[in-house]
Design a protein that fits this description.
With about 475 residues, the protein is an alpha+beta fold. It has 14 helices and 19 strands. It has 3 domains: about 80 residues, Uridine Diphospho-n-acetylenolpyruvylglucosamine Reductase, domain 2 (2-Layer Sandwich), CATH 3.30.43; about 110 residues, Uridine Diphospho-n-acetylenolpyruvylglucosamine Reductase, domain 3; about 210 residues, 3-Layer(aba) Sandwich (Vanillyl-alcohol Oxidase, Chain A, domain 3). The chain is about 25% helix and about 20% strand. Strands 12, 13, 14, 15, 16, 17, 18 and 19 form an 8-stranded antiparallel β-sheet that branches. Strands 5-6-10-8-9 form a 5-stranded antiparallel β-sheet. Strands 1-2-4-3 form a 4-stranded mixed β-sheet, covered by helices on one side. A hairpin with a 5-residue loop joins β8 and β9. It is globular. The structure holds flavin-adenine dinucleotide. The site of flavin-adenine dinucleotide has 38 residues, from β3, α5 and β10.
């Protein structure tokens, strides 16, 4: 690698790099331009050094090196944070993308996974044994990032969140220690990492429980984007057997071969779904959706569970974007009307509105059992605005924000994994007040200097908030 004189004295940098089992990428290196990219292509930041760590010892060394030099630190798994938190100007990036080991004990239904794996890689490996851990809807998302946020995917109603299958993690804390963290070892940290994001350390290994999931009824139903369909789908999805999890998208119909050419680009409501149970029962559960309107296309079929990722592959493509997300209890008719009206005049032709009906197994875990904030909310509405021209970002941010405000963003809960760069108040809205206070206190104990702040940041208890107020007296 070449030197980065603006960042660190070259002799200490050289010593640091020589001790790595992995490697460092600096500005000017051939790989740098690609290595600094993240999924949200409107994020254009120039880290001072990208450290492709090979093991936990590299992570400990990098944390210590950054602290000693007073350098800002960010953490990169799959690079899918909507806010682009994996990179920051001048920062040292702990890039875990080459730590991709996976050990799976099918008999005990346990997996030990390294954090550079993507959801798709993990899910395909588990499926080879007829098993799955619930992850998200898109294959390219990193397993650690989604796990630390909570993890809401196509098995949420049947099997719960990703964190409900997390058995333990290995974690490098701000002082460079490597801790084993589970229900019995640092249980406070184990509670916090299940929903509190990357605030408490860098996860170098995750142990998951697996569920038997083999052939599912899955795919998508493309319906006309009418008021009746949008109003009708939520109660049907909410009262369906828990085996069925749906993700509905009001969007322009994609130019896929199974969609009639005349429908391409016209508004549709695509109901993506997985029924994780008997296929015939699944057909019965899906029938009420089919009865909502004459489908534009119906590609629901028995499939191996990972095949659902083929339908969301486009979402994994790097593109500029902005998003706002709300957790709601009900989708009133007034909100249905707002969605239809706003989507009739989007700032970007690529804009979409996602409606996820939650509940089931994810809602049965008590809210206080993990740091995930709002298990009881039954609907997640997300306005996703990809756009073509990065220079027009402000216009799309304004449209997306205004639309989300009209849906009641201010009073809604948030899911930390879906937060964009929205400020401290929105991070707080991802957690009930008592949960946030407990997270802040654990943060104070394990990361009082807020070394891990390149994230949806929990401010250490007692520290100054970004708005200048105090977060309150830390508990004894
Ligand atoms: C297209 C798309 C689809 C998505 N679908 C879903 C979905 O269906 N369900 C869902 O729940 N979420 C979903 N998400 C949200 C996603 O789970 C979060 O944004 C998640 O944080 C991304 O993780 P990452 O590793 O890919 O991203 P990164 O940008 O690499 O990481 C995001 C943050 O996570 C933390 N982090 C990552 N790895 C580690 C680690 N090893 N140790 C400590 N901290 C770490 C860091 O704070 C980092 O800044 C989606 C996001 C996108 C862009």
């Amino acid at each position: 690698m070449t030197e980065s004189p603006g960042l660190i004295a070259s002799d200490s940098l050289a010593t640091f790099c020589a001790g790595l089992a992995g490697r460092a990428i600096a500005p000017g290196d051939a790989e740098y331009e690609v290595a600094r990219q993240v999924h949200n292509a409107s994020v254009d930041r120039h880290p001072g050094l990208i450290v492709r760590v090979a093991n936990a010892a590299d992570v400990c060394r990098t944390v210590a090196f950054a602290r000693e030099g007073g350098h800002r630190l960010t953490v990169r798994g799959g690079g899918h944070s909507p806010a682009g938190h994996a990179v920051a100007d001048g920062a040292i990036v702990v890039d875990l993308s080459e730590m991709r080991g996976l050990e799976l004990d099918a008999g005990r239904r346990r997996a030990w996974a390294e954090p550079g794996l993507t959801a798709g890689e993990y899910t395909r490996s588990a499926a080879a044994h007829g098993l799955a851990t619930p992850l998200g809807d898109t294959a390219s998302v990193g397993i650690a990032g989604i796990t630390l946020s909570g993890g809401i995917g196509f098995l949420a109603r049947k099997h719960g969140l990703t964190i409900d299958h997390l058995v333990s993690v290995e974690l490098v804390t701000a002082d460079g220690s490597l801790l084993a963290v589970s229900e019995t070892s640092h249980p406070d940290l184990f509670w916090a990492v299940r929903g509190g994001g990357g605030n408490f350390g860098i996860v170098t290994r995750l142990q998951y429980a697996l569920q038997p999931v083999d052939l599912v009824l899955g795919g998508a139903l493309f319906l006309p984007a009418t008021r009746d369909v949008l109003r009708g789908l939520v109660p049907i999805a909410a009262s369906a057997p828990e085996e069925l999890t749906t993700v509905a998208l009001l969007m322009p119909a994609p130019p896929l071969p199974f969609i009639p050419a005349e429908a391409h680009g016209r508004p549709t409501i695509a109901i993506l779904l997985v029924y994780a149970g008997d296929v015939e029962d699944g057909q019965r559960a899906v029938a009420p959706f089919r009865a909502l309107a004459r489908p534009i296309a119906d590609v629901i079929r028995p499939m191996p569970y990972p095949a659902i990722y083929e339908l969301t592959a486009e979402a994994g493509r790097r593109t500029p974007g902005v998003q706002r997300s709300l957790l709601l209890d009900v989708l009133e008719d007034s909100k249905v009307d707002t969605i239809l009206a706003r989507m009739a005049a989007p700032s970007s032709p690529l804009a979409m509105t996602q409606v996820r009906v939650l509940g089931g197994a994810m809602a049965r875990v008590p809210n206080a059992a993990t740091a995930f904030g709002h298990r009881g909310r039954s609907i997640m509405v997300t306005v996703i605005t990809p756009f073509a021209d990065g220079a027009e970002r402000d216009r799309h941010v304004a449209w997306t924000q205004d639309y989300a405000d009209a849906l009641g963003l201010h009073d809604a809960g948030a899911y930390a994994g879906f937060l964009d760069d929205e400020g401290e108040a929105r991070v707080r809205s991802a957690y009930p007040a008592a949960t946030y206070a407990r997270l802040a206190e654990i943060k104070r104990r394990y990361d009082p200097d807020n070394v891990f702040r390149g994230n949806q940041n929990i401010v250490p208890a007692g520290a100054r908030r970004q708005d200048g107020a105090s977060t309150g007296t830390p508990a004894a």
